[in-house]
Amino acid sequence: MSEEMGGEETFNPENSVYEEAIESCEHLGIIGSARPSEYVVAPRSQTSHISLPDTEWVAATHDLSALKGKRFASLRLAIATNGSQGIGNQGFAFDNIMISEKTKLAVLEHFTNSSDAQSFAADILVDSYASANRSEVIDIQYHTAYPGNDPMNQNNPGAASNRAGNLGVGLVPYAVLDGGATDIYRYDFSDSENSPGAEEVDLLSLEVPSFEIDLEVDWTESSLSTSTTVSCKAESYQEYIQLYIVVLESSITAYEGINGDTEFRNVVLKMLPTPAGKLLGQNWYQGVSMNIANDWTYEPYVEDVADLVVVAFVQDRNTKEILQAAVEHKTKPTGVADRFADVKELHLYPNPAKDYLYVNLGSRSELAGVLEVYDLSGRMLMNLETQPGYQIFNLDVSRLTKGMYVIRRIESGVLLGRNKFIKTE
């Protein structure tokens, strides 16, 4: 039951309104602490989980997509009790509030086989799901050796076998979202509840990634080269992480499956340097980076070089959670929104530079940000905060040793610009 208190409604947890409020939070995409012992709803406001008491900081995120295009928006925070006791020393505190663009890209790893009828139906569902959520998830499709012959597995048997073993997959069709750390991110397609849904990827997209991946691909007529820089954005990350580089072909039509399928999407062609990935170590701290380079000469089974795609992702070796991903297309698909489309080439002069380097952003910055300078091994050597309202910044590079460096412009956690420069003696 409810009662009026100071113009606010308070609800007993035993009341059905409590459950409605929980469902409202989940629908709104609010991620927070555990279920509360009390629930307070202020009129004309949105509800949020409250845990009494919390013994440590709790991260909570909320999707603001509904506010896109709105000229005026306000954030209001309030606390109340159900009237059984006074406020006393109850309250809440914040150690950080941030409003920024989503930067998390989820990975859906789908295991399929062109001889299996159930896989045919699942492939259609996964293709539709990936298309509907293309700005928030990239799908990787492994063709297995079971239950029957699959020519795409024969081309590259190691990738499907290794990843299936790593993720504990032993049947098809089967899909795993972001490493399948919990059962809600694992799907056997037995019914609608066991198939990928928009809610899961919506929640994942709200996470603030512990790592950032800067993926660059040099495409030629006969081969490709990748440069992948993994940077820690969290204050610290103590677990071992593994880097995987996957080469896909976005569309293959050279085969007709026994199940009747004639077009296959995002088929894994190669994992670099091997399907086992590259161990990047543990004990990461904010600003620490590592750069990995790989090369691959196209195999004869590549159907169309224009359809090649490279995906990079880092995975917690212990929990199997995929922490962040990045993707580069040889040819950007029509209608596909590119989250890095606004990454521009920074204007640098003089280049080569001896003592000072001027960085022209191309327009006045609207938000505070940072300019980061890395060496080619991925170590961040300089970090210059940029204030809003300015377009040109001056960097003292006199202490850098002779060589080539990478400079990047970051605002609200989003990469907006990058380029390379040479430091002379």
Structural notes for this entry:
The chain has 425 residues and is mainly β. The protein has 3 domains: 1-97, no CATH class; 106-329, Immunoglobulin-like (Sandwich), CATH 2.60.40; 344-423, Immunoglobulin-like, CATH 2.60.40. Helices cover 12% and strands 36% of the residues. The protein is built from 5 helices and 25 strands. The strands form 7 sheets. Strands 11, 12, 13, 16 and 17 form a 5-stranded antiparallel beta sheet that branches. A 5-stranded mixed beta sheet has the order 18-25-24-21-22, with no helix packed on it. Strands 5-4-6-7 form a 4-stranded mixed beta sheet, with helices on both faces. The longest helix is centred in the N-terminal third of the chain and has 16 residues, at 117-132. The protein is globular and about 60 Å long. The protein starts with a strand and ends with a strand.
